[in-house]
């Protein structure tokens, strides 16, 4: 034993022991610790872009954090189901929650999201589109930072309107008048196409028309329901009248976004209600209407401007995340001006930061973005209530029945309002 002790006291051993200690102390923590891994579920169509661009850039700037992008289905309702199932099971693997705007109240009310209210200042929030920020709130608290916006709008054939001497429509009456005139002259087969199938797109379309007539669906503050009010019946009457006047095809009650886009892009319609994604497709080199279209917010009545249904995605943090600080760091980067600019230039999505709508690089590629900001600023939220999915299902069923003559509008909306009130217990 004495020989062993003597060996460890030798100068050579002491030197190497000290040297080893110095080396261990000087090694950066990032090399001695495993990186933090954040899991994020992403719609499949966007996963690759995130991996190759935003996530790659973030990880280069933050070597101690890795982001594991999990590819989910392309259908947003299935993506929501995956999140919901994971949370209900009580051991969600996700840290960063990429949310459609209509999921926020449900996820927040269930206690699945961390409150972000104290992590960001009012001045920092002011850089984002106000309605996008509102879409991340629930009962006064902030749970979602907007990553990209989206809003329904009215596309129109500026060439046909100019040739016929019409200004862009301001009201529903203008829209009908111009549609009839262009159809009578044989310029188009249809005046106005919109989404009338029984699905979420029907609810999104309807809130814009409802706003234009001065009505409301559900007041989130009081939980009052307005579906059986006169304004709601006027909105339905307008939609039904477009079909009766044959400025809208009878088959519109089976149409989703793509069916309506194809009709408009083929030059068959003068007006289209749809989302921003249509612009790039309608202006592609092989499009018959390239350079012949313009956009504006949805029209309204003489005394009430129309609205633009707010869509878009944002990022939150799961309450169960073991790495909330790292997750917040990721959100700060992904929603930054630098990251959003690169993302928008690559994808053509709509930014959530107001400055980017007039950014020289973005406007050079997408010259309609300044007009798009006007649309986003007139955005209307679908009711930010915890029971939104059920409320939307109620509206879709009864509105579809009214549009297809299964029920009278009065009877359908009375039933829809009654069922919604029972849901909300008001």
Poorly predicted regions are: 1-32
Q: Which percent range fits the helix content?
A: 40-55%
Q: Give the count of helical stretches.
A: 20
Q: Into which percentage range does the β-strand content fall?
A: 15-25%
Estimated structural class: alpha/beta
Radius of gyration of CA atoms, rounded to a whole number: 27 Å
Query: What kind of sheet is the major sheet?
Result: 5 strands, mixed
Overall, the morphology is globular
C-alpha end-to-end distance:
85 Å
Q: How many beta-strand segments? A: 13
Mean model confidence by pLDDT: 92
Question: Can you walk through the features of this model?
Answer:
The protein is an alpha/beta fold and 426 residues long. 48% of the residues lie in helices and 15% in strands. The chain has 20 helices and 13 strands. Strands 3, 6, 11, 12 and 13 form a 5-stranded mixed β-sheet that branches. A 4-stranded mixed β-sheet has the order 8-9-7-10. The protein has a two-stranded parallel ribbon with strand order 1-2. The radius of gyration is 27 Å and the shape is globular. The N and C termini lie far apart (85 Å). The relative contact order is 0.16. The N terminus is likely disordered.
List strands and helices in order, with pairings.
Elements: H1 2-8, H2 11-26, H3 29-32, E1 36-43, H4 44-61, E2 65-72, H5 76-89, E3 96-100, H6 104-109, H7 122-125, H8 130-134, E4 137-138, E5 141-142, E6 145-151, E7 153-157, H9 158-164, H10 172-184, E8 190-193, H11 200-212, H12 230-244, H13 257-265, E9 269-274, H14 278-282, E10 293-296, E11 308-317, H15 324-334, H16 337-347, E12 350-351, H17 360-365, H18 369-376, E13 379-380, H19 388-403, H20 409-424
Parallel strand pairs: 1-2, 8-9, 11-13
Antiparallel strand pairs: 3-11, 4-5, 6-11, 6-12, 7-9, 7-10
């Amino acid at each position: 034993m004495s020989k062993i002790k003597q060996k460890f006291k030798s100068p050579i051993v002491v030197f190497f022991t000290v040297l080893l200690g110095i080396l261990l102390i000087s090694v950066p923590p990032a090399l001695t610790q495993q990186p933090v891994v954040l899991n994020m579920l992403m719609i499949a169509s966007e996963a690759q872009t995130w991996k190759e661009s935003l996530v790659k850039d973030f990880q280069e700037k933050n070597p101690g954090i890795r982001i594991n992008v999990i590819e989910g289905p392309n259908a947003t309702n299935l993506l929501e189901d995956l999140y919901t199932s994971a949370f209900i099971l009580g051991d969600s693997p996700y840290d960063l929650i990429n949310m459609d705007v209509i999921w926020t109240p449900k996820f927040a009310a269930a206690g699945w999201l961390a409150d972000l209210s104290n992590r960001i200042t009012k001045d920092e929030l002011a850089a984002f589109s106000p309605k996008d920020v509102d879409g991340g709130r629930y009962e006064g608290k902030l749970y979602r930072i907007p990553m990209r916006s989206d809003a329904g709008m009215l596309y129109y054939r500026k060439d046909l309107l100019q040739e016929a001497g019409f200004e862009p429509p301001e009201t529903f009456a203008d829209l009908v008048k111009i549609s009839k005139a262009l159809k009578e002259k044989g310029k188009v087969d249809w005046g106005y196409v919109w989404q009338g199938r029984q699905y979420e797109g029907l609810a999104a379309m309807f809130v814009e028309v409802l706003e234009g007539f001065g009505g409301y669906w559900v007041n989130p503050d009081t939980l009052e329901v307005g579906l059986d009010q006169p304004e709601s019946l006027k909105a339905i009457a307008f939609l039904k009248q477009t079909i009766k006047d044959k400025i809208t095809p009878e088959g519109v009650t089976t149409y989703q976004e793509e069916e309506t886009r194809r009709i408009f892009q083929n030059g068959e319609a003068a007006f289209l209600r749809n989302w921003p994604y249509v612009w790039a497709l309608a202006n592609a080199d092989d499009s018959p209407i390239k350079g012949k279209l313009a956009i504006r917010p949805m029209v309204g009545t003489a005394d009430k401007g129309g609205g633009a249904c707010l869509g878009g995605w944002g990022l939150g943090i799961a309450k169960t995340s073991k790495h909330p600080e790292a997750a917040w760091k990721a959100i700060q980067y992904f929603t930054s001006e630098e990251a959003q600019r690169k993302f928008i230039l690559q994808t053509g999505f709509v930014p959530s930061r107001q400055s980017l709508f007039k950014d020289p690089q973005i406007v050079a590629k997408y010259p309609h973005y300044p007009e798009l900001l006007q649309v986003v600023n007139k955005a209307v939220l679908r009711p930010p209530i915890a029971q939104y999915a059920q409320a939307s299902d109620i509206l879709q069923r009864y509105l579809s029945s009214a549009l297809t003559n299964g029920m009278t509008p009065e009877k359908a909306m009375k039933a829809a309002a009654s069922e919604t009130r029972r849901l909300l217990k008001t």
